[in-house]
Design a protein that fits this description.
By secondary structure, the protein is an alpha+beta fold. It contains seven helices and 16 strands.
Length: about 290
């Protein structure tokens, strides 16, 4: 299947306050964000013409920028409005939404406090990773060779571009070995997350998930926890060691792109997607609809 490059598409992108032609949404090669990772972003999904949890995503974008030491020059309401304007202009009911904010090219060096902060929002069609039938087979993960860092070594609560470098390396390695994704541990050796999604385990009817003390507490993660409790499941957030996966019957990932995706294998640990996965997939579909 031919790949359509993201710099050569029809449509419009919201860029620093106005909609411009897609192909004109460019930045200079000496932008600070490219050299020093001073960039934050969000991943959002629209269902039926409405972005799910839009304001929560917009607020996290603002908070992430502040954690990287810069203020996005638009208010929460203005970012929400710009997102809705871009989605409407794209003309898609169901779509993926990518807001991104970054330091510009006024200064080049580690210190760049006088750089202009830019904001862009793009919308494109990106279907779910898998059909419901394929999902219930469970995807396959290997253990990542990289670990999530200590919160004192990186702004781990930010959705910052630089924090995803080890995710790309880990996912590429997994795909090259025939897996779908990789499970990342943290610096302590505890279970953290997949490369772009949070992870949950079903152990004797209860749902267990790692406490997000050094990785992103996903908006989809919080949504699924609430849905699970509404469905009558006990949800336990706690530190988890890899060997505990031997006790788990089911496993699934959550994220904007992944939604609720069952897992069939992580390394030598195997799981059978069942009632809990099916129930939460159905509940999540109902919530976003």
């Amino acid at each position: 299947m031919a790949v359509i490059p993201f710099d050569d598409r029809d449509g419009v992108i919201w860029y620093d306050g106005k909609l411009i032609p897609w192909r004109d949404a460019k930045l200079h090669v000496l932008s600070h964000a490219l050299h020093y990772a001073s960039c934050v972003f969000e991943g959002e999904r629209a269902y039926g013409g409405k972005v799910f949890k839009l304001t929560e995503h917009s607020q996290r974008l603002i908070d992430s920028g502040r954690l990287l030491g810069f203020e996005i020059p638009y208010s929460l309401a203005e970012i929400d409005e710009a997102t809705n304007e871009t989605l409407k202009a794209a003309g898609f009911g169901d779509a993926y939404v990518r807001p991104v904010a970054w330091r510009g090219s006024e200064m080049m060096g580690v210190a760049a406090q006088a750089t202009r902060i830019h904001l862009a929002i793009a919308v494109w069609q990106w279907p779910s990773y898998f059909s419901p039938e394929a999902k219930m087979k469970g995807i396959r993960l290997k253990f990542a060779q990289w670990k999530r860092p200590h919160p004192e070594t990186a702004p781990t609560r930010a959705k910052a571009a630089g924090l995803y470098m080890i995710c790309t390396l880990s996912k590429h390695n997994a795909e090259n070995e025939g897996f779908d994704d990789a499970l990342m541990l943290d610096w302590r050796g505890q279970i953290a997350e997949a490369t772009g999604a949070n992870v949950f385990f079903v152990i004797d009817g209860a749902i267990h998930t790692p406490a997000p003390d050094c990785f992103l507490d996903g908006i989809t993660r919080r949504t699924v926890i609430a849905l699970a409790k509404e469905c009558g499941y006990q949800v336990i957030e706690r530190p988890m060691m890899p060997e505990e996966m031997a006790k788990a019957q089911e496993c699934f990932l959550t994220g904007t792109a992944a939604e609720v995706t069952p897992v069939g294998l992580i390394g030598d640990y195997r799981f059978t997607p069942g009632e809990v996965c099916a129930t939460l997939m159905k509940a999540y579909t109902a919530a976003v609809s």
